[in-house]
Design goal:
Distance between the termini: 19 Å
Helix content: 40-55%
Oligomer: single chain
Radius of gyration: 20 Å
CATH superfamily of the largest domain: ATPase, nucleotide binding domain
Structural class: alpha/beta
Bound molecules: 5'-O-[(R)-(carboxyoxy)(hydroxy)phosphoryl]adenosine, zinc ion
Number of helices: 12
Shape: globular
CATH class of the largest domain: Alpha Beta
Length: 339
């Protein structure tokens, strides 16, 4: 299947052309960070206006780079939720219009499912099912049991902030621009991860839940203390990052003890973090469970992953071009198709 992917759930205006859920013929993403940075976070109204201004050209751009036309496509895949309503609406309305005008099938994809299938882009084969997914983004941190492309169950989740949110909030405390993950990672590279002992969330026996707001709050109190004012920001960043990574790897390891998984994937924007990638890689070598991690361009929001999910989910993601609506609270579990 040759699919056009469209992703506008947050602040990246992204389009892609993907063949058979693997071969990425084009992957276009226009980052809006410059428009949101001065507000210290994403301004939903600005995000949707930018999507509206950028999306048509981004669709054209992806088709041209892939050297295909609308007529060559087998379908159009769009993120239907979860995300910011105003942002989602722009992508969904555009995809519906394209599907309606061309008569091509439309697929409404869950953004989080996109992240889970992103690691398979450009690979020759998928891992065996069931596999374990650790999904860490700005809005979500969860462990998912993936029994098949259409049977995905959340088995652990954050009780408060998402890991990416903790990076973004801590970056702000350190005076770094939004989004904070990349800035913390750069600062941490020159620091000592063992310099400061920020608290790690400990879950009850058998629980796969996680929490990151305690780490962030500990950093805030520390920075307000005399010791904190004297501390090197590099050490604060490295110690914060180490605490988040420890919690994530602990829950990943626990989840893998509960089921004989033959593979695990790490995905979402925070999966771009090299300390997390290294720690998960070390866990994989210890446990003998192969780990797939997408290159950073497929970790953060992109449209190739939306086409990858649609390709694998097929009819279960099919949507009616007259009826699909954006759903900011789209449930994680796939509902039966309504075509
Ligand atoms: O998946 P994503 O692009 O968007 C959402 O669906 O949320 O994830 C964005 C999140 C932001 O919180 C950002 O700070 C974080 O991913 N992030 C990182 C890194 N790159 C992006 N966090 C830590 N280290 C990074 N290198
Ligand atoms: Zn995302």
């Amino acid at each position: 299947m040759l699919l056009l992917g469209i992703e506008t759930s947050c602040d990246d205006t992204a389009t892609a052309v993907v063949r058979d859920g693997r071969a990425v013929l084009a992957n276009v993403s226009t980052n809006q960070d410059a428009f949101h940075a001065k507000f210290g976070g994403i301004v939903p109204e600005i995000a949707s206006r930018q999507h509206l201004a950028l999306l048509s050209a981004a669709v054209q751009d992806a088709l041209e780079r892939a050297e295909v036309t609308l007529a060559d496509l087998d379908g159009i895949a769009v993120t239907a939720g979860p995300g910011l309503i105003g942002s989602l609406v722009i992508g969904v309305a555009s995809a519906k219009a394209l599907a309606y005008a061309t008569g091509k099938p439309l697929y409404g994809v869950n953004h989080l499912h996109g992240h889970i299938f992103a690691p398979f882009l450009e690979l020759d084969a998928d891992p065996d099912y069931p596999f374990l997914a650790l999904l860490v983004s700005g809005g979500h941190s969860q462990l998912v049991h993936v029994a098949s492309p259409i049977d995905l169950r959340v088995i652990g989740r954050t009780r408060d902030d998402a890991a990416g949110e903790a990076f973004d909030k801590t970056a702000r405390l350190l005076g770094l621009p939004f989004p904070g993950g990349p800035g913390i990672e750069r600062l941490a590279a020159g620091g000592d991860p063992a310099a400061l002992a920020f608290p790690r969330h400990r879950a009850e026996r058998g629980s796969l839940d996680m929490s990151f707001s305690g780490i962030k709050t500990a950093v805030r109190y520390f920075l307000e203390s005399p010791a904190g004012r004297a501390a090197r920001p590099q050490d604060v960043a490295a110690s914060f990052q180490a605490a988040v990574v420890d919690v994530l790897v602990d829950r990943l390891a626990r989840a893998a003890e509960q089921h004989p998984y033959r593979a695990a994937v790490l995905s979402g924007g925070v999966a771009a973090n090299s300390a997390l990638r290294e720690a998960c890689g070390a866990w994989s070598r210890r446990s003998g469970i192969p780990l797939l991690v997408p290159p950073p361009r497929y970790c953060t929001d992109n449209a190739a992953m939306i086409a990858a999910a649609a390709d694998r989910q097929g009819d279960a993601a099919r949507a009616d071009a007259r009826r699909l609506s954006a759903n900011p609270n789209m449930p994680f579990t796939l509902a039966p198709a309504v075509v």
